Amino acid sequence: MVPLYMAFIIGGALCLIGQIIMDFTKPKITPGHILVGYITIGAIISGMGFYQPLVDIGGAGAAVPLSGFGHLLAQGAIEAADSKGILGALSGGVASTAAGITAAIVFGYVAAVLFNPKD
Hints:
Blueprint: H1 4-24, H2 31-47, H3 51-58, H4 60-63, H5 66-84, H6 86-96, H7 98-114
Helix pairs in contact: 2-5, 5-6
């Protein structure tokens, strides 16, 4: 089990990097760019085998941020490619992240029904 302070340090460091990038590159790099960049970089680093040790050290601090989502996409694609070939490489990432995607849709819908936006 990962100590709670390590999750805080790793997750905080990932957020700090994104914030520094946004602060020093305004208005060229937007939060949307950071989000897509984290997913892409997480998938690339995972494909090279370097992200799992970060998850082992930081636990949820590395697994929950968007770079962890990229890691999960890459690992799902790699595992499905090993078992199903090229079709598995195309569908494995979506299959491995289906629970998270479904939760985001359901909770987003519930929040939209329960709360009224302000002008």
